[in-house]
Amino acid sequence: MSAFVVRNEIINRIVASIDLANYGNGMLPVPETPILSETRPEDLGVLLREMNEDAVGQRYPDLTVDEFPGTVDDNQKLIPYQYYEVPPADKEQLFKDLSNLIYQCFEGDVPQQPLFVEIRTYRERLGLR
To answer: What is the pLDDT of residues 7-66, one digit of tens each?
Structure first.
């Protein structure tokens, strides 16, 4: 199994969607877990990226963060996380984005971490396959 750092756009779309769901828009289930429901969007984005980097680091322990597989800049260094506003995803796209992130984080002890458990549980609550 390989792992890579997902694009900022995916993390930010997840964050925007969860933020919208926290306001009870009726299209997405309201998160019922503490990290997803109580963390500011920009902070949640940082936490998701850190979790992703942790998983990739456990998969490739001999690489530095700049060497991790993922989107790179002109100098072939991993593009750092940056929070920016994007439109939220619909239910189907959110399911795909969460599935992508979950798959890339399924390394080492990351699947037992509270944030991973929360996003996996939330994805299941979307009711899609």
So the answer is: 999 999 999 999 999 988 788 999 999 999 999 999 999 999 999 999 999 999 999 999
Classify residue 3: in a domain, yes or no: no
**Two tokens, residue 129:** 């396959």
Domain that holds residue 112: 8-125
Q: How many domains does the chain have?
A: 1
Residue 78, beta-bridge partner list: 72
Does 2 reside within a domain?
A: no
Residue 8: count of CB within 10 angstroms of its CB: 19
Beta bridge partners of 5: 70
Residue 1 has pLDDT above 70, yes or no: no
- What's the number of CA atoms in the CB half-sphere (13 Å) around residue 21? 27
Task: Confirm whether 1 is domain-assigned.
Answer: no
Written as one letter, the residue type at 53 is: E
Amino acid code (one letter) for 46: V
